[in-house]
């Protein structure tokens, strides 16, 4: 467990997962074991979305890769590269074509092993500042490597009349539940406001879109994404790829509480 603290803000990170963001005793992050989802946050990389109906195959310039839903990054372990009292840097590295065991196999998937035909380094950083928590993702890899990125945090809900404001819309939790497992698309959006007993503003750089998902009324996932995967058929997920170049690609999320 990694603990960060700055003033009235505390953060707990367990094996790279943000399991607590607490400000003055108010918890913003969904707690493991509570109804809704078994996790608190995760990353979707190098693909976002379902792959089962495509035989778990995703097209790349180097041929087909075997990927389960939301990619293989979550199957790798983070290593702490640096830490201070208010910040931490975590790293995952992957070598091209290395076979990775699929935690969903065999209960929820028929793909026992996953692989990606490119090297990459994935860095996740947390930093507390006076105006909130900053989460940065840095991706380095082979020139021309295709990828999508999604960040999948779950937020704890405290009140009964929660609203999410995005692009002039006010969205309720029942509306999100009604959409189901595909998640509600919020296109061309870089900032969302979660209005609960306290207000949390979620601002992003590099993603361009969000999707919203929950099946319960005590939590909601507000997910910055580079591509909404249900815009295409599963066999055509490659149409949503971005492409790495020689530079490091950075994606940022800022959680700004109302206090």
Overview of the molecule:
Monomer. This is Aldose 1-epimerase. The chain has one helix at about 175-180, and strands at about 1-5, 10-15, 15-25, 25, 40-45, 55-60, 65, 80-85, 85-95, 100, 115, 120-130, 130-140, 145, 150-155, 165, 170, 185, 190-195, 200-205, 210-215, 220-225, 240-245, 250-255. By secondary structure, the chain is mostly beta strands. It has one domain: Distorted Sandwich (Beta-galactosidase, Chain A, domain 5), CATH 2.70.98.10. The chain is globular, with a radius of gyration of 18 Å.
- What is the CATH domain class? Mainly Beta
How does the major sheet shape up? 9 strands, antiparallel
Number of separate helices? 1
CATH topology: Beta-galactosidase, Chain A, domain 5
Radius of gyration: 18 Å
Task: Give the H and E element order.
Answer: EEEEEEEEEEEEEEEEEHEEEEEEE
The share of residues in extended strands comes to over 45%
Total number of domains = 1
Low-confidence stretches: none
Computed structural class: mainly beta
Shape: globular
Helix content: under 10%
Distance between the termini: 26 Å
Query: Would you tell me the overall average pLDDT?
Result: 97
Number of strands: 24
The CATH architecture would be Distorted Sandwich
In short:
The chain has 259 residues and is mainly β. It is 3% helix and 48% strand.
Question: Strands, helices and their partners?
Answer:
Blueprint: E1 2-6, E2 9-14, E3 17-23, E4 26-27, E5 41-44, E6 57-60, E7 63-66, E8 79-83, E9 87-94, E10 100-101, E11 113-114, E12 120-129, E13 132-141, E14 146-147, E15 150-156, E16 163-166, E17 169-172, H1 173-179, E18 184-186, E19 191-195, E20 199-205, E21 209-213, E22 219-225, E23 242-243, E24 249-257
């Amino acid at each position: 467990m990694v603990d960060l603290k700055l003033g009235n803000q505390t953060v707990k990170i367990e094996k790279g997962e943000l399991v607590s963001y607490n400000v003055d005793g108010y918890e913003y992050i969904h707690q493991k074991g509570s109804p809704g989802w078994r996790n608190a946050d995760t990353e979707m990389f190098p693909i976002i979305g379902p792959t089962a109906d495509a035989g778990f195959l995703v097209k790349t310039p180097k041929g087909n890769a075997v990927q389960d839903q939301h990619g293989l990054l979550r199957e790798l372990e983070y290593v702490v590269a640096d830490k201070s009292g208010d910040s931490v840097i975590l790293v995952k590295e992957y070598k091209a074509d290395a076979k990775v065991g699929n935690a969903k196999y065999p209960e929820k998937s028929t793909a026992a092993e996953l692989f990606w035909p490119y090297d990459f380094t994935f860095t996740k950083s947390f930093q507390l500042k006076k105006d909130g928590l900053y989460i940065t993702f840095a991706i380095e890899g082979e020139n021309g490597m295709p990828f999508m990125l999604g960040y999948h945090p779950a937020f704890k809900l405290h009140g009964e009349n929660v609203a999410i404001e995005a692009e002039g819309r006010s969205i309720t939790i029942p509306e999100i539940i009604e959409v189901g497992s595909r998640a509600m698309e919020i296109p061309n959006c870089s900032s969302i406001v979660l209005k609960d007993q306290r207000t949390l503003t979620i601002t992003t750089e590099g993603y361009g879109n969000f999707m919203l998902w929950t099946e319960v009324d005590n939590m909601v996932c507000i997910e910055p994404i580079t591509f909404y995967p249900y815009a295409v058929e599963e066999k055509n997920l490659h149409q949503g790829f971005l492409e790495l170049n020689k530079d490091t690609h950075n994606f940022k999320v800022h959680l700004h509480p109302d206090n």
